[in-house]
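Incident log, structure service

09:12 report received: a user says their structure output differs between two submissions of the same chain.
09:20 pulled the input from the user's history:
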Amino acid sequence: MLVAPTFGWHGRVSVRLEAVVGTKRLAFVLGLVVAGVVGSLPVAATGPRPPQGAPAAGTTFTYQGQLNAGATPFTGNCDFVFSLHDAPATGNRVGSLVVRSGVEVVNGLFTTTLDFGPEAFNGDKRWVETSVKCGAETTFTTLTPRQPLTAVPYALFALNLPAQYYYGTSWTGSAVKGLAVSTNSPASDAAALYGVFESPSGVLAPPETRGRGVWGDSFSGVGVLGSSGQNDGVAGIAASSGKSGVFGYNVSGPGVTGKSGGGDGIVGFSQTAGKSGVYGQNTLGAGVTGSSQSGDGVAGFSNGAGKSGVFGANPVAGGVGVTGQSQAGIGVYGTSAQADGIVGVAGASGKNGVYGQNTQPGGVGLSGYGPAGVGTLGRSETGAGVAGFSKSGAGVQAFSESGNLIEGFAAGERRVFYISTNGSVFASGSFNCGLPANCFNAGSGADLAERIPASEPLQPGEVVEIDPSAPGRFRRARTARSPLVVGVISTAPAITMNGLPGDGRPLLALAGMVPVRVNDENGPIQPGDLLTASSTPGEAMRAGPNPPPGTVIGKALGSLAAGHGSVPMLVLAR
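09:34 re-ran on a clean worker, output below:
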């Protein structure tokens, strides 16, 4: 195969061909003029290097011959058909047919060009078969025998060039290693096989179609395999900004895969600030994916103060810097011998420093475990240290096998509040609403109430009494100054006792302030008046002077001039 010429030469080999054409004996003396070339692979200090930018030689060569009619040189025009064969007779044709029409022959001499294609010459022997018709002849005559093509001296030299002189040669082999190259040079930059691609000027093609210094291709095995007993199996170096030392591209599978029997599958190093030891990019999927059958899928290490073993960044709204996923284990796991295992920082209002999500019933969005310390710790300068929110479940759940369920500490790590394992509540201070206004039941009182069984439906604000026909149950008070009266049904108590989640029984106000239904049966009601049951079921009235013992339910805190209405009352049984 002829490739880009460097320095060349010309040589000629002549053969005499004879055949009978019509009544004439034609004798051919064919001369082959061959352009020889050499080349060199770019290795350090070895042999001459061909000049860059030289045009390609192609596979066409000059063919010269001498045509005699009998003993007289022939003059005229002839048509020729040339074919190349791998045997002196029969055998197989190699390359393309070459047809040359109207070739001018002057005094028996002619010159033409032949091109049997790029695969015609591979170093094996070749024979040329020639057919010719001249003048008014209508048929071609094949000259016999076929003529062997013999190499000129420099062509023999080209077949025996050292390995580093070959340019553009395709190698094939049936052995375990199709091509094995080795070097014993002690130089630090020595290479057993070194490939360079020097692109021409102009716009480069897309990365996946550009030239390569070294290219590996395999239909069922490894395209490029690097192995070393003491050093890197494959080392990639890039001197251009934004380029990769090693670049892997795959339209349907992994771009780069690393595998190790006893060490790291892939190791990346970077000595530039702000750059990554390993960088992965994907416009549709994961930039970097780590998978392991028995160890860590991705392990990141950093020796820099304030730096991360693994760092994830996503500048797009709604994107995730680092995502951890596991089918049966931990999605994200952080550990530290002296500092925080996992630290999450959010710089936007309403966003989470650490966010955990679990879509399965009974699962945990974020879990903390401390065998000897705090399982989960939340800190805040101005907001809540730990906040819990749920649409249909518990916002915050607390579990403890032997300790308190919840503990609260003030400055100086002084415990001021806790809930014991059995649910008892202890507090160093008093119980308060906690707000200057709009307390628990603003406008409806703030009372202590208890769930009671009822003989009939009871409404908030109604006056109730013991039901004599159903001991242990309660009903609306039905007579004025009833000695069976016990109090008022609470509207919205601050504290509820004797109740369970979902308990719909009415609440009897035991202490505090509560709204009560009243009427003017015993006159207008003024603040400070004692109240008792009226003859209207479920309503109270002014008790008047000297009410019978056990009939007063409270003291009015509001007024009623006439008719029916509601006033706030301080619960005061007497």
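09:41 both user submissions now match this output. Likely a transient worker issue. Closing.
09:42 reviewer note: The first strand starts at residue 10 and ends at 21. The radius of gyration is 51 Å.
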